[in-house]
Design goal:
Chain B: Keywords: Cell membrane, Membrane, Transmembrane, Transmembrane helix, Transport. The complex is a heterodimer of chains A (321) and B (304). Chain A is of the alpha/beta class. Helix content of chain A is 32%, strand content 25%. In chain A, strands 6-7-8-3-9-10-12-11 form an eight-stranded mixed beta sheet, sandwiched between helices. In chain A, strands 2-1-4-5 form a four-stranded antiparallel beta sheet, with helices on one face. In chain A, strand 11 and strand 12 form a beta hairpin. The chains are: A alpha/beta (321), B mainly alpha (304). Bound molecules: adenosine-5'-diphosphate (ADP) and magnesium ion.
């Protein structure tokens, strides 16, 4: 694993709603190296999806990237025109989503939908694209790809649909694949199949992955490095081994403690007492203070910074000053 | 196919019920004999006529023979036209179709761009203007709009004919009159379904593929918006015919609407009944068509 080829620097994405400003992504910096799988974990609402959508510049009003940089192959994507950005999306950075049913357009065939990005980015005719699509469908393990090419999404099972999404995302051989909870909506056995498939394909395509999940089982299986997010911020970042063996942030520890041993995958796994603070009104101190078992006086009054406690291991916590 | 046949068969009882209602109303409305004979007819002559056309039979016998005749396309003879009622109605249908189709074309040409525009630029000034215009267009009564158009284009400017049918110029004002309300309704419908669809996950997927936004809007979103649009539009045939009734009267447009209003005024019951049955049949067929189109446009539903 070499150079980091994509980097977020102090990214802030806020939603300006009628109730107030939601700092959904609040000063997030991260980098992904070639061939690496970086996982982002955290409870629902911690800003994982908004981080990934910001990276694709797919934030819609009332949301906005307030500041920060998205460095990709030496360029800042934040400054890209719409047209230049389109050439990146689906081509160099592709994305798969949580709900494979709602994420596919119900009125177009699978073949039609996968062909689109190939036609758009690779200057191929419909016929050439079809060949490539069939090839991709075969690669993602879809039986009778010719038939599936002409099928509508509703005619396929959840697992098949997610395979279609993966085929679509990988069809232009992207440098980075963003997978936002790719297995959350699937049955346990299908989840395992999809994860295995993704691992095989990453190796074959040499794609880097930004894997978003709230499932630490998936993290253990897939990730090289892990970022833990809470309240729109990174609270801990380390390699996957250290995360499970020597977690530092009380929130990370809480996450690990509440992970069921046999994955009960459908459920939100978190059972740390208390609730996520209201993003419209974050406390001035540590955002986790109210739920933290080791909370101190400082935690409530001063916001902790992200500190590197060991090479490659950073924590945002007053316990680790 | 089975499904369509089944739906076609369901039309029969509906038409029977309508025929019953129409017949009952006419039955209650009273005796047509007085209108059929000259003013100086004797009581004896009246009684004779009543007997000969079966008006002295009990209600159910009269209804039975009525249905029997109607099934054969015989709605009786129009007093006013001295002709078989159905063929009178039949002759008027093309004019109404012409007007309706012109109105729908105008409405579609206005509603699709404005509906999509205002949905994609929600709360922009275009959106506000389009939405406001739709409210006004919907609220404007057909007869009032028709008269205003006549006053302006025919009387003041003198560029378009006041009434009647014939040249293309004759069609313009009635089509605009009838089309305005439909355009307003369509714009509102397209806007709201586009707004909903643009928030769907598959739109985000389409954008994440890097395809052009034209393609995202017109292919991915609009193709989905077509499903409720076409369906609801077809289901609004009755509103369209209601509008045609008034528009045709204002512009002396010789269609089935004008015919019906005149027939009601002159108590030409054969025509009234034929008109109502034909209109009912058209509405029912359009509902069936809406159902079929819906199934064709939405691959999630099978025609079985
Ligand atoms: N379109 C939006 N409008 C307003 N707030 C939003 C919007 N999308 C996301 N948010 C807010 O941003 C925060 C982070 O959301 P998200 O990134 O989806 O969380 P998750 O970690 O579950 O993926 C949440 O507080 C959410 O309410
Ligand atoms: Mg999410």
């Amino acid at each position: 694993m070499g150079e980091s080829f994509i980097q977020l620097k102090n990214l802030k994405t806020y939603f300006h709603t009628e109730e107030g400003t939601v700092p959904a992504v609040d000063d997030v910096s991260l980098s992904i190296k070639k061939g690496e799988t970086l996982a982002i974990v955290g409870e629902s609402g911690s800003g994982k999806s908004v981080t990934s959508l910001s990276l694709m510049r797919l934030i819609e009003p009332p949301g906005r990237i307030e500041s920060g940089e998205i460095l990709f192959e030496g360029h800042n994507l934040v400054d890209y025109s719409k047209k230049k950005m389109r050439a990146v999306r689906g081509n160099k950075i592709a994305m798969i989503f949580q709900e494979p049913l709602t994420s596919l357009n119900p009125v177009f065939t699978v073949g039609n939908q996968i062909s689109e990005s190939i036609i758009e980015h690779q200057n191929k005719s419909k016929k050439e694209a079809k060949q490539l699509v069939i090839e991709m469908l075969t690669k993602v393990g879809i039986p009778r790809p010719e038939k599936v090419f002409h099928s509508y999404p509703h005619a396929l099972s959840g697992g098949m649909r997610q395979r279609v999404m993966i085929a679509m995302a990988l069809s232009c051989n992207p440098e980075l694949l963003i997978a936002d909870e790719p297995t959350t909506a699937l049955d346990v056995t299908i989840q395992a199949q999809i994860l295995t498939l993704m691992k095989e394909l990453i190796r074959e395509f040499e794609t880097s992955i930004l894997l978003i999940t709230h499932d630490l089982g998936v993290v253990a299986e897939m990730a090289d490095r892990v970022i833990v997010m809470y309240g729109g911020q990174i609270v801990e970042e380390t390699d996957v081994y250290t995360l499970f063996k020597h977690p530092k942030h009380p929130y990370t520890k809480g996450l690990l403690a509440s992970t069921p041993k046999v994955h009960e995958l459908k459920e939100e796994l978190i059972s740390i007492s208390g609730t996520v603070p209201n993003p419209l009104d974050y406390p001035i101190g540590c955002r986790f203070a109210d739920r933290c078992e080791s909370v101190m006086e400082t935690c409530r009054t001063v916001h902790p910074e992200l500190k590197e406690i060991k090479p490659g291991h950073t924590v945002r916590c007053w316990l680790h000053e | 196919m089975n499904y369509i046949v089944r739906r076609m068969l369901q039309i029969i009882p509906v038409l029977l019920i309508i025929s019953f209602i129409v017949f009952t109303l006419v039955f209650i409305a009273g005796d047509p004999v007085a209108l059929m004979l000259p003013d100086d007819a004797t009581l004896e002559e009246i009684e004779q006529l009543r007997e000969s056309i079966g008006l002295n039979e009990p209600f159910y016998v009269q209804y039975g023979s009525y249905v029997f005749r109607v099934v054969q396309g015989d709605f009786g003879e129009s007093f006013r036209y001295g002709q078989d009622a159905l063929s009178v109605v039949w002759e008027r249908l093309p004019a109404t179709f012409e007007l309706a189709i012109a109105a729908i074309i105008i409405a579609i040409m206005v509603a699709i761009p404005f509906g999509i525009w205002s949905a994609t630029k929600q709360n922009s000034s275009i959106d506000l203007i389009a939405t406001g215009a739709a409210v006004v267009g919907k609220a404007m009564p057909n007869f009032w709009l028709g008269i205003m158009l006549i006053l302006f284009f025919s009387v003041t400017l003198g560029v378009l004919p006041v009434s009647g049918r014939g040249s293309f110029a004759h069609l313009i004002l009635p089509a605009i009159t009838l089309g305005t309300g439909i355009a307003a309704e369509m714009t509102r419908l397209i806007r709201s379904s586009m707004l909903e669809i643009l928030n769907q996950d598959y739109i985000r997927t389409a954008k994440s593929k890097g395809i052009k936004s034209v393609q995202v809007i017109y292919k991915h979103a609009f193709r989905n918006a077509l499903i409720p649009f076409v369906t609801i539009t077809a289901l609004q045939t009755s509103t369209l015919i209601g509008g045609a009734l008034i528009t045709e009267t204002v512009f002396a447009w010789p269609g089935i609407g004008q015919l019906l209003i005149q027939a009601v005024n002159t108590r030409d019951m054969a025509i009234v009944q034929a008109c109502v049955m034909i209109i009912a049949a058209i509405v029912i067929l359009m509902n069936l068509l809406a159902d079929i189109i819906y199934r064709i446009l939405d691959p999630r539903i099978k025609l079985d």
